[in-house]
Amino acid sequence: MVARRRRRAARDGEDAVPSPPGYSALPVKFSEQQRASHYLYLRQHRVREGAQSTWPQKRTLFVLNVPPYCTEECLMRLLSPCGTIRSVELQRKPELAENRKENKSKYFHPKPVPGFQVAYVVFQKPGGVAAALTLKGPLLISTESHPVKSGIHKWISDYADSVPDPEALRVEVDTFMEAYDQKIAEEENRAKEEEGVPDEEGWVKVTRRGRRPVLPRTEAASLRVMEKEKRKRARKELLNFYAWQHRETKMEHLAQLRKKFEEDKQRIELMRAQRKFRPY
Amino acid sequence: GTMGPAPAGKQPSGAAREPEVIEPALEDSGKEKKKVSLKKRARAESPAESLLQPVKLSREELYKEPTNEELNRLRETEILFHSSLLRLQVEELLKEVRLSEKKKDRIDTFLREVNQRIKRVPPTPETVLTDQSWLPAGVQVPLHQVPYTVKGSFRFLPPSQVTIIGSYLLGTCIRPDINVDVALTMPREIFQDKDGLNQRYFRKRALYLAHLAHFLAKDPLFGSVRFSYTNGCHLKPLLLLRPCGKDEHLVTVRLHPCPPLDYFRPCRLLPTKNNVRSAWYRGQSLPEGEPPTPHYNTWLLQDSALESHVQMLSTGLGSAQGLKDGVALLKVWLRQRELDKGLGGFNGFLISMLVTFLVSTRKIHTTMSGYQVLRSVLQFLGEAARLGKVSLNSDWLLCTPQPALADFHQVFPVVFLDSSGLLNLCADVTASTYHQVQHEAQLSMALLDSKADDAFQLLLMTPKPMIRAFDHVVHLHPLSRLQAACHRLKLWAELQDSGGDYVSAALGPLTTLLEQGLRSRLHLLAHSRPPVPEWDINQDPPKHKDSGTLTLGLLLRPEGLTSVLELGPEADQPEAADFRQFWGSRSELRRFQDGAIREAVVWEAASMSQKRLIPHQVVTHLLALHADIPESCVHYVGGFLGALIQSPKETSSTGEEALAKAVHCYDDLSRLLWRLEGLPLTVSAVQGTHPVLRYTEVFPPVPVRPAYSFYSHLQERASLLPRPDKPCPAYVEPITMVCHLEGSGQWPQDAEAVRRVRAAFQLRLAEVLAQQHKLQCRATATHTDVLKDGFVFRVRVAYQKEPQILREVRSPEGMISLRDTPASLHLERDTKLLPLLTSALHGLQQQHPAFSGVARLAKRWVRAQLLGEGFTDESLDLVSAALFLHPEPFTPPSSPQVGFLRFLSLVSTFDWKNNPLIVNLNGELTAEEQVEIRSGFLAARTRLPVMVILTPQDRKSSVWTQDGPSAQILQQLVILAAEALPILEKQLMDPRGPGDIRTVFRPPLDMYDVLIRLTPRHIPRHRQAVDPPAASFCRGLLSEPGPSSLMPVVGYDPPQLYLAQLREAFGDLALFFYDQYGGDVIGVLWKPTSFQPQPFKASCTKGHMVVSQGGELVMVPNVEAILEDFAVLGEGLVQAVEARSEKWTV
Fold first, then answer.
1. Residue ranges under compositional bias (Basic residues) (chain B) (predicted)?
2. Cα–Cα nearest to B154, from B186, B184, B177
């Protein structure tokens, strides 16, 4: 009976798919064969007053609930009838700032396994967004003319892609390291220039590299110094010398025993509750 | 004063107990108390309450002036007990097992009634013993009367005295089965001269009981009247009386008829005397003279000493509560070890006598606490073994003339004389049983001395059933074969002595035979004692062959298991003949490398698992050769579980050899890495991290030889690729290892730059290995895959300071502090802790060869239950390691079978909520450090994962369980383990064979909401399934070594790739369960919480749809579309998606 109610709900959906306020719902399916569809929720990209966003407000379409098998190319193809598309960006969570994907290396930041994502689609003109909001669907992700790989075929092609090209990797590493070395060299040069030169208030910066190196300013180092001091002090102190010290030690011992006793009692109480004293 | 044996009529000393008048009041308060405690219990069981909290006491409470009473108690605790916890635990246990006063009153009332009833049984006229026609119908004589003819006559007269004896009187009886022993002194008129001869006394005793039984059975007072045997002795039946109605389980009164005082002349019952004539028993007298009948004599003596023993015990234990508590604790201790039941068991009487004896020799003092008594007795039992003695005493002999102690030693393996010096209390105890008691005592002492936190739990609360305590067990079934064995072993005198009980007659000689044959392989051999039967009075007593199964337990000596050879004496030595006689046809003359020619036996065993089962060959061979017990009657239980960890197509080995081969190859590779030239920095360490390298990989890798035609090729990168039109190729798991490079000023100080430098090293490593050693390599940014001898190793370059760089945080003042970040923890775990763990467990395997089998069986089982995802490899390996490092109260397992059973037991009984599992690898933690770890655990409990496993390297955070299991998954594992353990133990204890050993490995599937069936074509490990398929697909491997210039397909497992996608896409909505070892079904469980309709929120629309419900727009999971997604994402792999429940409907 419940299933029937479901089916009715789905049929009603053909007339008017319920959508959250401000969004329009767009059914999407993997291919013709699927019966049920997911719903994309579309909206024009807006931000609250004062918030910064790199996406152009009027021309960007914000899409929720993009299924895992839907790639950026797919989305580009499916929405292009609405107008020329500048870019499509898929993300795990809604984020205001554009994720600079270009600088992410394929080797050092491999693409994660996709789940349901959100998309920012930037059209050339604001009209594209409006057209997209009136789409009826259902969109088909994989069609005969544009098949999308899934399952075994996808995993095999993923595997082939994962076999690395050592030359390309080497080139990338070398480029990065050259830039890095240059940056370090510059910093060192600057440090050398500043060495011994007082700033406008007359302070001189002392560094580890100078003629008279100092302790590095790390937490570990300062802890070490404190520890040393403490030990030095402890060595000088007398133990159980005065009567009151002796009394206090005894009392401390008693308190320890009491505390232990309380803990044990709690343990026993628990074991009793768990019937831990029934031997068999 | 001392309490003497009191006649039952006078028993309840009126003064102690007030009449019934105050009863209602008592009852009321009792009820109220019960209510309160029930409430308390209910509260304590609610989850929040059952968690231990760190104790918070105010300063005033901690530092107030102590009262005298408090000081006394604290001092007492320190002196008499190890710790206050132990004291409280012992007190609780005693409270639990001790008989309440209220029940005692009810029992006393019942006893008074019994006494009156017995006195009222009418006498019968005298008849000859062979004429039993006077016995009314409906009662059978509870004795096998073989041979039937016997001289003498019998009449029934009411007992001259009815006396309560035994533990009830002494106040040492313990719950749950309360027995009250009552001695019935048969009047002198019943007996004639020489009734001690030829079982006449026992016949009369049995007839006496039969008549009594007939009359008592008619009485409505009794719920049941049945026969049983006294301590399992077949000549001495006894009558069991139980109250009727609701009191049926309150008490069992056991009636023991006994002869009048001084009826038997002790000098006739010395162990050297004969009292069963061969002419009568065998029908012919022996020319060599009559054999002595020591056991028969002892049984007569026992009956006549009943009262004097009780007197002695009352004097000895007296009013000292500590001694009684001690006896009660010892009884619990024995019972947990299954040592107290049956003929020759170490029962409560024996242990009370031992305590009395130790009191008399001043080894125990009457002011000692129960715990101290327990300790002293264990110490005594354990030390007696160290001296190599099997005799327990004896300098409390008082009367003269004494028979020579040597006479006793000649006929009894264990001698413990009572104060008369005539009666061996341990007459029925076999040497094996005594050795077992000693072994247990030594283990327990070691445990107590270790001051372990949970000593009490392990010592007194943990049962040690045979199947879980011994490495292998052997069932002899059917028992009737032992009759033939007795003849083959020429045990006629013993049969004559034991009145035809061939099971106990054969027991001693059989265990001696096997002990001799197993020598170097055996640590301890124990045997079960036949259970004491009970039967209705209208039935014949059960036959010897009906007393179930004889089960032997073998505790193996791992160092002796590696040899396939029994080395005998040199051929010309006189002992050679004995050796040949002992081993029969298996003994052969062999020439050894040192030139000696010796007798020797060589067993067939190629692999480690076969060597472990050599005792099987030894046992079957010796039993057939010497005891005429055919192989079909010997059911050896030791290697059945091996089938679960055997590689597909492998039958002779459980994988230890294959693992060793992979480890060997790894060693070669690490040597190459050490000596590698041409790297800018030198290699400072090479460490393994993969389970293969600690011998815990369930299915060890095999060298791959790909058939090239099966794959597509990526020529320019010398790699093979899977083909969509072929079945999934064989799964090749890369064996991971870490290669540390030396520190140097050249390393950059920036995390991103370090990654690039490491990548450069990975590339360089691949180049150099390919150039210098012609190995096929493939480098990525994070690792280099190396193909060597068909194994693929994944070498990861590590820089020691990298975790530190990842931790550095610069404060605004320019101070650099170190803070753990997920990335740094992850890196430290993989490159520092994991290698340490791997090498520690590798070492453990060298010490305990069974570790590999246990750890692999355990992992196999957890994953077969589809719970593999929740538990890391390392956490399960550590649990298995704990079984070896903390085996108490057992010894470390020497067979995978027993280890696996203990794994199930540990998992199902461990209180994960309140305790960390401390695995003391290499014994690095001291007792104090462990205490510290425990208190640290309590304080941090809420921040720690649900399952906490701590090691010397990881004392606080439990790294291997950080990411799971969740509380639900752990709970599920606990439930499944608790269900599997009794099933498996029952199977293994079944003398007819275990049946289907894979039963407990099959997962329950009915709990899942959706099942996703996978097609075997794309499951690369399909053949590893719990139920291996008869046929599977070709996986593109050659059986012959082929060219190995191309990198095989590495780490390609479609079900795992599919699962990763499912979890990423639907992880918020459902849990996915799968057995990575060839499972062909994925279980899906919807998360109930995510099916609650939610208001719309842009951040969590994943897979949801908006529906209007009651005029409101809410989001619910789009289940129908999701079910179709399951099929879409796994196209080609998924066979069917079965939705099995309607739970998901909203």
1. 32-42
2. B186
B36's tokens: 């309160």
Residue of A37, A203, A264 best to disrupt the B interface, most CBs of B under 10 A: A264
Tell me the C-alpha to C-alpha distance, in Å, between residue A161 and each of A106, A155, B403, B766, B1058.
Answer: 11, 10, 92, 19, 17
Q: Are residues A41 and A88 in the same domain?
A: yes
Q: Judge if A11 and A122 occupy the same domain.
A: yes
The complex's ipTM works out to 0.84
**Are A16 and A126 found together in one domain?**
yes
Q: Is residue B92 helix, strand or coil?
A: helix
Yes or no: say if B276 and B198 are a contact pair by the CB < 8 Å rule. yes
A25 neighbors A19 (Cβ within 8 angstroms) = yes
Residue B457 in contact with partner chain A when CB distance is under 8 A: yes
Residues A155 and A174 reside in one and the same domain: no
DSSP notation for B300-337:
HHHHHTHHHHHHHHHHHHTT-HHHHHHHHHHHHHHHHT
Residue B744: closest CA among B807, B788, B690, B683? B683
What is the extent of the structural domain holding A168? 164-196
Contact B824, B738 (CB under 8 A): no
Taking an 8 Å cut-off on Cβ atoms, the answer to whether B759 and A165 are in contact is no
Token digits of residue B678: 């041409």
Euclidean distance between CA atoms B1128 and A142, whole angstroms: 11
- A233 found inside a domain: no
Verify that A9 and A132 share a domain, yes or no: yes
A109 within a domain of the structure (yes/no): yes
Residues of B in contact with A3 (CB under 8 A): 1142, 1145
Task: Measure in Å the smallest separation between the Cα of B1111 and chain A Cα atoms.
Answer: 11
How far apart, in whole angstroms, are the C-alpha atoms of residue B86 and residue B76?
13
What is the helix, strand, coil percentage profile of chain A, to 5? 45, 15, 45
Residues A158, A33 share a domain? yes
Number of domains in chain A: 3
- Retrieve residue B789's tokens: 């001898």
Q: Whole-angstrom Cα distance, residue B25 to residue B1098? A: 68
The answer as to whether A14 is a domain residue is: yes
Looking at B734-819, which runs of residues are DSSP E strands?
A: 735-741, 776-779, 784-788, 791-799, 808-810, 816-818
Residues A145 and A260 in one domain: no
Q: How is residue B1143 written in tokens?
A: 């739970």
Examine the domain organization and report whether A129 and A172 are in the same domain.
no
Domain boundary among A115, A145, A162: A162
User: Which conformational region is residue B638 in: left (phi greater than 0), alpha (psi within -120 to 50 degrees), or beta?
Assistant: alpha
Kindly list the averaged pLDDT for each block of 10 residues, start to end, along chain B of length 1146. Answer: 39 36 33 39 44 71 76 73 78 87 88 89 88 87 87 89 87 85 91 87 92 89 90 90 84 91 85 88 83 91 89 85 91 91 86 88 86 91 57 43 71 83 86 90 89 83 92 90 88 87 89 91 90 88 83 91 87 88 90 88 90 92 91 91 85 88 94 89 92 94 87 85 90 94 85 90 92 90 91 93 84 75 89 94 94 95 92 95 93 94 94 91 88 88 92 91 90 94 93 88 92 93 90 81 78 94 91 93 90 82 84 86 92 91 61
Alpha-carbon span B645 to B695, nearest angstrom:
12
Tokens of B281: 């028993």
Structural tokens at position B892: 């470390």
CATH number at residue A8: 3.30.70.330
Q: A276 CA to chain B: closest CA distance, Å?
A: 8
Mutation test of the interface with chain A: which of B175, B1061, B1140, choosing the one with the most A Cβ atoms within 10 A? B1061
DSSP summary character for residue B988: H
Rounded Cα gap, residues B539 and A168, in angstroms: 91
Q: Which of A18, A165, A267 sits opposite B1106 (nearest CB)?
A: A18
